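Tokens in:
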């Protein structure tokens, strides 16, 4: 039995929320409809004509991509243009498309964290802080027999995510007392009769931006027509997010050795290296990395005292500026972001086990790297 596309996207956005994307980044739902059942979901880096044909052949219902397929407004929708013809093929075969872009870079345990892990870099800071979010606590009182349903609903809506843990909560038992009026339609008891009900006090912490969806989930799961609850702003340290990561290698190494490590880890035929004309550094240890096209962030890498900055698509004149500032830069290309495919397939299968979904996840096998080395 299939699941609803919207149900899957709800779980995806718990991990990779849209509000973390950089301003102007067209993340989210792009093509088709999410109000449909899905049996096969494909993860890809790019949505290209060859990827669409792969999805058609594999009978995919939903594509999740790192790079948004519609990055700029479409002026014409014709079959004469390969790009717009691709969109028409997706609609014709009822294949929905969803994209997560800079939010995938910024999230905790996201793309830049995976890069650091693969390269043996122990990250200790963001390169550039992008979001600071305060925390709130919800306290809600429910009949004891509804407590588990409430905890699950709040966790599914994004409450109780603390570091590497999710669905965290605290529950305490007590007695709820109330007297329904003649105008009430009580789930428990009768009008004008005092009630004393065993209740659970459930406490969950959540990021303040999720308050609306948390409360919506609470009201939907609560059996009472007038739920009793408290919302408390917390003085705890806020949750912070940022683009890029900075950290240290376990041991210093030469830039030549580190370049070979980058090539091996990402299975590269070659890479571009920018070095200052008079590079006095014999070894490197502090590494800054930003997946994708992060040339504009090189000053942040300098501010974090990075020995090397790794990013893709370095512009010619920006490389000159990097040299002038004495920064060594490795450009492994944009396509190293393809590591998101196996990582997300792994996460999606874990969600499948948690939710008992009947759905298959497919890794795109199409090579979308437009560059070759000769």
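Residues out:
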């Amino acid at each position: 039995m299939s699941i609803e596309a919207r149900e899957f996207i709800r779980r995806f956005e718990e991990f990779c929320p849209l509000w973390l994307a950089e301003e102007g980044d067209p993340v989210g739902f792009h093509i088709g409809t999410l109000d449909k059942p899905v049996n096969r979901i494909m993860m890809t880096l790019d949505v290209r004509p060859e990827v669409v044909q792969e999805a058609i052949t594999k009978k995919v219902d939903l594509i999740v991509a790192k790079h948004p397929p519609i990055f700029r407004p479409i002026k014409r929708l014709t079959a004469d243009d390969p790009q717009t013809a691709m969109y028409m093929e997706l609609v014709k075969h009822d294949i929905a498309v969803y994209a997560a872009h800079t939010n995938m870079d910024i999230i905790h345990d996201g793309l830049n964290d995976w890069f650091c892990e693969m390269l043996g870099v122990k990250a200790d800071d963001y390169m550039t802080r992008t979001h600071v979010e305060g925390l709130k606590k919800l306290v809600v009182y429910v009949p004891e027999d509804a407590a588990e349903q409430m905890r699950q609903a709040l966790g599914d809506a994004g409450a109780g995510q603390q570091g590497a843990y999710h669905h965290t909560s605290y529950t305490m038992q007590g007695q709820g007392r109330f007297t329904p009026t003649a105008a009430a339609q009580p789930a428990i008891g009768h009008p004008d009769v005092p009630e004393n009900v065993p209740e659970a006090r459930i406490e969950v912490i959540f990021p303040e931006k999720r308050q609306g969806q948390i409360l919506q989930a609470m009201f939907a799961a609560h059996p009472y027509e007038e739920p009793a609850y408290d919302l408390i702003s917390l003085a705890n340290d806020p949750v912070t997010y940022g683009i890029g990561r900075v950290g240290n290698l376990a041991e210093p190494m030469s830039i030549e050795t580190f370049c070979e490590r980058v090539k091996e880890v990402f299975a590269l035929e070659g890479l571009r290296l920018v070095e200052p004309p008079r590079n006095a550094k014999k070894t490197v240890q502090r590494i800054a990395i930003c997946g994708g096209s992060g040339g504009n962030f090189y000053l942040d890498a300098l501010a974090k005292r990075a020995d090397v900055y790794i990013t893709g698509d370095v512009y010619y004149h920006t490389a000159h500026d990097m040299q002038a500032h004495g920064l060594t830069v490795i450009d492994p290309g944009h396509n190293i972001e393809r590591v998101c495919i196996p990582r997300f397939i792994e996460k999606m299968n874990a969600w499948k086990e948690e939710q008992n979904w009947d759905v298959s996840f497919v890794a795109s096998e199409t090579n979308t790297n437009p560059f070759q080395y000769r």
